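Same chain as my last thread, 196 residues:
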Amino acid sequence: MRTRSEDTRARILTASADLFARQGYHGTGLAELLDAVGLQKGGFYHHIASKEELLLEIMLDPIDRILVSSDQILATDGDATTKLRQLGTDLGNAMAADLAAWTVFLREYSVLGADGKAQILQRRQQYLDRWRQVLQEGATAGEFRPLDLAFVEGILGLFIYTFVWARASTPPEELTRSIMQVLMPGICLHPVPQPR
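reply #2:
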């Protein structure tokens, strides 16, 4: 169970992610942040050291969570095709659940200082390595065609850009299904039934 302080911090992150996603990091002032979370300046800075630290935490939160869930997928006994589909579904679910933070992740990376950028790049690499591992497993098992693993760089972008720029009226499950209907036939050597 979370403490009241943890609840307040989570509220700051959620409200700030929404503002940064809509208005941009530089377009959002401290007064707007304070108003959105219902805190005075002292209370705000009790939980957050700086605006840039807040931005970094917003960006780290979704990638840290998906690192955990993707590790769980890779630890299963399923074949590579099943794991690939699960990775895609997991990423789509993560985007849908926290689209504001993923939007900030996409748009505000350049604002971070060198240390923040290094942290984001490291986690991004770790996450994409999960996809590379599954693609390599599938190629070795004869499930997938051999691929230049640099291709994986585009997968995260495909999901992020699709979710960020899609109309709000499109259900997230439909977006994920559409992406996977493009990815799976291009990767798998044998026909794979597509989810409906």
